[in-house]
Amino acid sequence: MSEPRRLEVLRAIVEDYVHSREPVGSKALVDRHRLGVSSATIRNDMAVLEEEGLIAAPHTSSGRIPTDKGYRLFVDRISEVKPLSAAEKKAIQTLLEGADDLDDVMDRTVRLLAQLTNQVAVVQFPRVGGASVRHIEFVLLAPQQILVVLIASNGTVQQRIVRTPAALQETELAELRQRILSAVSGVKLSVLPAELGVALSQLPPPLRAHGGTIVRTLEQLAGLGRDDRILLAGTANLARSTGDFPLSIGPILEALEEQVVMLRLLSEMEYDARGISVRIGSENPYGGLSGASVVATGYGPDAGAKLGVLGPTRMDYPTTMAAVRAVARYLSRILEE
Amino acid sequence: MSEPRRLEVLRAIVEDYVHSREPVGSKALVDRHRLGVSSATIRNDMAVLEEEGLIAAPHTSSGRIPTDKGYRLFVDRISEVKPLSAAEKKAIQTLLEGADDLDDVMDRTVRLLAQLTNQVAVVQFPRVGGASVRHIEFVLLAPQQILVVLIASNGTVQQRIVRTPAALQETELAELRQRILSAVSGVKLSVLPAELGVALSQLPPPLRAHGGTIVRTLEQLAGLGRDDRILLAGTANLARSTGDFPLSIGPILEALEEQVVMLRLLSEMEYDARGISVRIGSENPYGGLSGASVVATGYGPDAGAKLGVLGPTRMDYPTTMAAVRAVARYLSRILEE
DNA sequence: GTTGGCACTCAACACACCCAAGTGCCAAGT
DNA sequence: ACTTGGCACTTGGGTGTGTTGAGTGCCAAC
User: What's the predicted TM-score (pTM) here?
Assistant: First the structure.
């Protein structure tokens, strides 16, 4: 009863189950894969695999399906990431290069990923943390209403309307803008709050009152960044695979809708040496997502922002991982320009 | 066999079916509603209603369920919009007033609507057509890369990065900005392209070459507006009511994901005197949405932007319509400020 | 460590049956 | 001209009973 063959059996079970959706038995295994041994031997191997918690039988005397632990072993030790076809690579490249806008790039990316994997795609906007202040603009919309705009060096734009406690003149606002901009122009967003504090203390007293409100808004905009936004696509793919999920897809849709949940999910994943991370079923922290797997990776500078897909635990991991990795690479390349 | 009573029967059938999810029979009707006649009479009425295509029997000798046409009659002639409870009104008001940002307002609105109706909420961003140019900003990101920002009087901000054919100096860009801004400041977005054309022709030749690229971008930003964005919430509510939809919810999720489809859907609805519009099941133009109903209304100035909910045809129309209308009103009020 | 054989299990399917809810229709009543 | 009670008929759904087929576990033999 050799160890290598047992792993081979596990791989066969995973692969068969992934594409047949049905528990797989010893007989079917020897038929479909050239294992060189009889079904009885396979049964012995399967008994051991079950002992180890890698596979399970839904009902007594039924075929086996992989457990989460089984998938984990499969992903970590058995599977090889399947390279994409040349045609697919070409398609990715041309599609992404046709975009003109950051928003457009992200939108195309998430749709592409959903289509490529036939699953729900999630893409987080690039982080702005490393970027610096390119420009600041204050626009007087009404006597006590100011539009604060922060433009970062990476091209992201944040804006918010803020109400000031007292009315403000256009000229005062211009001066305020001038002073603040000259103080923080080029400053990294991550240290912006500190610099703003200094700048604020050096303002002439009459401006300082208003400055406080506006500066706080700027701080928020910097901290907020754009990386708190995520894009979704392919939720319809969830419906196709009803039944793949133990419960209903309701909790999953709920989780997807909560940006906070998805952001935590993406950021909490541990990205190993291969750079690609997989959370399988019950490994997911949020209860509603047991029964679902997440395949994600970072992209862009420092791989700081994340992107990935979500699907049933019964998914084609090698292909999915390949697609996620490829899309992340192409996206990184596009963003470098 | 009086006409009024037949309508009363239809109303009873709709109401019972909406909250029991099961075909309703003549006996159950007389039990639950004080109709003052016997079940046999109701059966006669039901036969007529079926003749008219207002109700149908899923199987021979089973209770009846309303048809799309039946719901239509119910909505148009029978039902009365149920006013919200005082508590609900209060909740809407406080929730929406707590928002600070336009984005935040819209986000809260769509979630509120989803929660209130237990259905999928769709909110279109306010139109910018009537707004005017508040400010224009060009930021040199790289020698041939310019960030073009257009700030409208209603507080919306559009930006896009554009590549110029040749390198441009910071000073040139500043001059360009100065000239264009002075030409179009305060101009309505709807006539911006024309004004930009004039401004462009009056530029000194060296600037005109670059100006062309940038001006085209500005035109796009103005046309694009923000009204092409929609927000969704409550998709998980679809999963709760699986079985309410004849087919799977897949096509519905697909439609929801396609902003273009949703925008057309919202804009194509006919808004009658009551200002609230209902599309029932097969009345929906897009095939994937037969089996779903949409309740929508306009909000804001001219009721130009739309908002609404999507759910199973078997929905509580009076309550849903009340919620949609109330949210639209409160949102309009908030936006006026 | 592998294999064929064999008894055993169990979900899924098919079939038969009954029951409750409901209909359609008719003749009698108002 | 409606309304009503009565009655025969339909049918989906629930329940009980075989039957079948894929699959297991175990054992003795190789």
Answer: 0.84
